[in-house]
Every structure is written in C-alpha cells, then in structure tokens.
Specification:
The complex is a heterodimer of chains A (118) and B (114). Chain A contains no helices and twelve strands. With 118 residues, chain A is mainly beta. In chain A, a hairpin with a 2-residue loop joins β7 and β8. Chain A starts with a strand and ends with a strand. In chain A, 36% of the residues are buried. Chain B is mostly beta strands and 114 residues long. Chain B contains no helices and eleven strands. In chain B, the strands form two sheets. In chain B, strands 2, 4, 5, 6, 9, 10 and 11 form a seven-stranded mixed β-sheet that branches. In chain B, strands 1-3-8-7 form a four-stranded antiparallel β-sheet, with no helix packed on it. In chain B, a hairpin with a 2-residue loop joins β5 and β6. The chains are: A mainly beta (118), B mainly beta (114). At the A-B interface, β5, β6, β10 and β11 of A face β5, β9 and β10 of B.
Chain lengths: 118, 114
C-alpha cells in the first residue's frame, strides 16, 4: 500500500517570504499522480497544484511550485511571496495511475499547518 | 461558491439517533466520495461511487450506510454511532475520466456523537 509522509506538523513563514513544505511517499508503481491540497479554516479542501509522475518538469501555479524528485520519492511544495491568505493546513496526496481496483483512491498525508506572520 | 455542497454544516447526535448527511455536486462529475477527517490523522476514504455504482468500501462499519441515487447526490446514513465516530466528514467529486482529475471537496459536516 502507498503511504504519504509529511514530516512537518507545523511551519511558519514571514509574510512575503518563501517557505517549503516537505512530502515523501512510498510506492512501487511507476505511474501515479501527486497533489497538494490546502484546507483553510473554512474547511473546504482546495487543490493547489498537481504533478504527473511521467512528467520531469516541475509543476508551477503562480506563487506555488513543486520540487518533484521521483527517484527520491519526494514532492515538496514551495510557496513564494507568502500571503496571509496562505495560512492553512496543507495536505500532500498520492493517486495511483493503475486503472485497477482502488484507482480512485487518494492517499493523504497527515498535513502541515502553515502560519503566516504579518 | 463551492461546486460541492454539504448539509448540515454541524451535527450533534446521540448514540441511538439516526441521521443523514447530504452532499450535492453541480460540476457534472460522475464520481463521488466520502472521506472522514479526524484530528491528527490522514484523511480516510470511506466510500467511492462511480456512475451511481459503489466501487469502493474501505472496510467501513455498517453503522455508516451510503446512498447514491444519482451522479449529483450522495448521502451518508448514520445510526447507532460511537463517540469515536466524531469527526469532519468530507464529500468530494471528480470527473470519471482521467486519473489526474482532481477531487473537488465540499465544506464538510462536523459531526459530534455524544
């Protein structure tokens, strides 16, 4: 079974600075998808960024980018120019690319709580 | 405005009560999910429905009973729950095609079992 590990329960960053959230995963598959979700106090999980394992280029979405290291099974999220609205729980998630049973399942990490200091 | 709406937002129920959680999606998706979010634990997948058919049941106790009458609506019927079932219950939907399609979540129902 796949596992996702987020080793930082809490992080803080000064407003306008850059912060990196760590995520590692364990899988024997070669085809899969990785996601970062954000959960603000409103509780709604919002997709931040996603990465296909077959793509070598790191995904970017405005101020958010990832460092995807497939051999190391690492998928970190970098937030640049942090804003107060970035304060939230951030979850890393894994999804198999296998079309067999369980393929719809997202495996989540425990999350990292990010605080942004004004 | 979320494309996935969950009601109620909060629910307090006794262990002998019967209640239902409702989820509705307006995104034209074909797959719907129930997740359980407990403090300090990863989100746990409970059920998956694809085109109204249940495709996954993650060893969920029978006191949780899902129902999917159509691709837009998903219910979670609750009866004789335990205090450890207190958690945030999240509904999500996704397009059936493409495994890279992300999940769209609702705001969740905060359930407290007394």
């Amino acid at each position: 079974a796949q596992t996702v590990t987020q080793s930082q329960p809490e992080m803080s960053v000064q407003e306008a600075e850059t912060v990196t959230l760590s995520c590692t995963y364990d899988t024997s598959e070669s085809d899969y998808y990785l996601f970062w979700y954000k959960q603000p106090p409103s509780r709604q999980m919002i997709l931040v960024i996603r990465q296909e394992a077959y793509k070598q280029q790191n995904a970017t979405e405005n101020r958010f980018s990832v460092n995807f290291q497939k051999a190391a099974k690492s998928f970190s999220l970098k937030i640049s120019d942090s804003q107060l609205g970035d304060a939230a729980m951030y979850f890393c998630a894994y999804r198999s690319g296998d079309s067999g049973a369980g393929s719809y399942q997202l495996t989540f990490g425990k999350g990292t709580k990010l605080s942004v200091i004004p | 405005e979320t494309g996935v709406t969950q009601t109620p937002r909060h629910l307090v129920m006794g262990m002998t009560n019967k209640k239902s959680l409702k989820c509705e999606q307006h995104l034209g998706h074909n797959a719907m999910y129930w997740y359980k979010q407990s403090a300090k634990k990863p989100l746990e997948l409970m059920f998956v429905y694809n085109f109204k058919e249940q495709t996954e049941n993650n060893s969920v106790p029978s006191r949780f009973s899902p129902e999917c009458p159509n691709s837009s609506h998903l219910f979670l019927h609750l009866h004789t729950l335990q205090p450890e079932d207190s958690a945030l219950y999240l509904c999500a939907s996704s397009s059936e095609t493409g495994f890279s399609s992300p999940l769209h979540f609702g705001n969740g129902t905060r359930l407290t079992v007394t």
